[in-house]
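Proteins fold reproducibly. Look at a concrete instance:
___
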Amino acid sequence: MIILDNIEQFTALYKEGRKWQRCLEAIDNINNIRPDVYHSIGDSLVYKLESGQTQPSEVFVGYRRYLDVHYYLDGEENIEVAAKQKLTLSTPYQDESDREFFTGSGERLTLGHGQVVLFENHEAYRFYGHSSRNKVVLKVTIEDGYFLNK
């Protein structure tokens, strides 16, 4: 997981590559979309605006072909994250949904206003506790790109 303090750090680190430019384009467009409806830019990115209460999850979710980027506009959210190899697989990977589910425990964090979080594909995460937040969730293809060194 990569945690950045603000969108300026994200912009500075991820300025190269079409998919990262599309992330910034999506974030710039959030005032023009309805909450909880996925929108797409090209074939490498889908995104939505999530507002309100976080629903806790019993299981961790992990992805293989897409990675999640969360940009917190307001409020905060409690997240638990762990390497997939340290968790127990509970539902095998499904190619149609690009998801697999795990049980276990991991590192607990509270993320909030202004932060940008990138969940890497060797990790899975879940939400715990009830919190209120307003964020942009971006699902970005792993193809044709890379993460800069942490």
Remarks:
- The chain has two helices and eleven strands.
